[in-house]
Amino acid sequence: MRDLPWHLSRPIAHRGLHGGPGGPPENSMAAFRRAAAHGVPFELDVQLTRDGALAVVHDAAVRLPSGRERPVTSLTLGELRAVASSVPGAAVPVTLPEVFAAVAGRVPVMVDVRRWGVAGAAGLERAVTTAVRGYDGPVAVQSFDPRTVYRLRRALPGVPVGQIAGALRSAPPVLRAVGRSMATNAVSRPGFLSFELDALPSPALRFWQRRGLPVIGWTVHSPEQERAARESVTNVFFSGYLPSAYA
C-alpha cells in the first residue's frame, strides 16, 4: 500500500473529520482543520456561487429562513453565509482557496466538483482549475459528471481525476443507466473511480476494475464496514470513526 499514491492508500475523511460528541459539522473549516491536525486526508464538495466563489457546499439548494429553497448557484457567497448563519449548528460555508490556505499542504485534499445541471459548467471547471493550479499541496479531483471529468483531466495534467458513480437513484432513467454503466469512461478516461458501496455488486464496476481502474468506495462508517469494503475496492471514504491507519 505504501507504493500506491495517497488517494489509493490512505482512508479519506468524507467531508472532513466531523461528528462525534461536540465535533464540528461536515464540510466546515473546523472539520478540515481537525483532519489536518490528525494527519488525515479529507474530501470536500465545491460549487460556484453567483458571484464566482468556490463555496464548499454539498447540496444543490439551501433553505431560506422563509422556508423557500434557493439553488446555491443563485446566491452570492455573502448571501450563502448569511443563510447558514441563521441555522443553529450549520457549517458557515468557506471557499476552496480558504481551505487550501488553512491546510497548507499538511494533508492531501480530494475536491468533489458538484455540478447540478448544465448552467455554469465552464465557470465552475475554470475556477477549480485555477484553484488547484495555484495550490502546492497534494490534491485530487472527482465528479459525477463525465464531461467535467474529461475537461478537468485535460486541464490538470498530473492531478488524479476520478469519476463518481453508484446507484444514482435520483438521476433521470437515461442518465442513471449511462452513469451506472460508466460507459463514458472510454472517452473521459478517469484515473480512478469513486463508487457507492451500497450499489455493490456491480458488473459494470468489475468490468472497469479488470481494465485497471482503481476504486475508492463510499462511505464506510465503522471498522467492520471498512474491512468488508476492502474485499471489493482499493481504498475508502470514511465517516463517523477513525480508521486504524490513523490510530
Automatic annotation (TrEMBL):
SUPFAM superfamilies linked to this entry: PLC-like phosphodiesterases (SSF51695)
Pfam families to which the protein is assigned, alphabetical: GDPD (PF03009)
Species the sequence originates in: Streptomyces roseoverticillatus
Residues in GP-PDE domain copies: 9-247
InterPro entries according to UniProt: GP_PDE_dom, PLC-like_Pdiesterase_TIM-brl
PANTHER family found in the cross-reference section: GLYCEROPHOSPHODIESTER PHOSPHODIESTERASE, CYTOPLASMIC (PTHR46211:SF1), GLYCEROPHOSPHORYL DIESTER PHOSPHODIESTERASE (PTHR46211)
Gene3D superfamilies: Phosphatidylinositol (PI) phosphodiesterase
Protein name: Glycerophosphodiester phosphodiesterase family protein
